[in-house]
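Entry:
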Amino acid sequence: MQRFILGRVVQSIVSMFVVSVVVFALVRMSGDPIQIMMPAEATKADIDLMRAHLGLDRPWTVQYWRFATQALQGDFGRSVRFRRPALDLVVERYGATLELGGIAVVIVLVVALPVGVYSAVRRGSALDYAARAFAALGQAMPPFWLGLVLVLIFGVLLHLLPTSGRGTPLHVLLPGITLGWFAVAGLMRLTRSSMLDVLGSEYVKLARIKGLPERRVIWLHAFKNAALPVVTFAALLFVALLNGSIIVETVFGWPGLGLLVIEAVDSRDYPIVQTVVLFLSAMYIGVNLLVDVLYAYLNPKIRYSQ
């Protein structure tokens, strides 16, 4: 088990290193932030002086080494646009993204789990066909398109819900539904598939022979044994939704990390882009590591096979 955990930790460290190199290189290919920082009347000497002050005149390898060593100490640089530490801005916006992701996860679990379970139990019924059609539609519909449709219906036509900003609990409904829509379809299909694998097993048949109530058979015996892949998916779901919030936050003007990184890309704000991407990548890799360890603990065959 210790060897398995050590291997996963090493893989996670290598993954973070690769992500940091790729992000560092890509943001520097997008343009020169000095042109945005300096006023129009700035001379070439002023621009060169500022570039030297920020260390942007040095080779990329030197710049990356400086960035990596400072990042390990919690210093991700200062925002070019806001003239504030990048990490402070990311922490400020993280709360809004966390709220949006939390609401989306609640929507996903409340809808996907019961529908997926009963779709498997009533296989071949109208409910099953409707659930499968909904899942296919959910995975085929782009989030930005769904967001625009919801804005048009509930904001423009019916005037029932706010369509931008963050203020009241109502503000989070439309972006939460939009963000969770795709995940509802995926978790519903996974739950249905896992339940179908379990419903024909011997211990479920034995539970029914004993005369246990059908609800208890479904939730206590069948779902309990089908839940391992579902729990694994659900554990990664939250971080995946945070990473996927960029488009949704842009559509609804939600003041979170997604909107911040879009603004940073437009203004070529290197420190903000790097900090947000590394922050979300570290969360995803960290949760993935925990899920791997938990899965190996619950299923010893995995760690022994690797």
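The chain has a mean pLDDT of 83.
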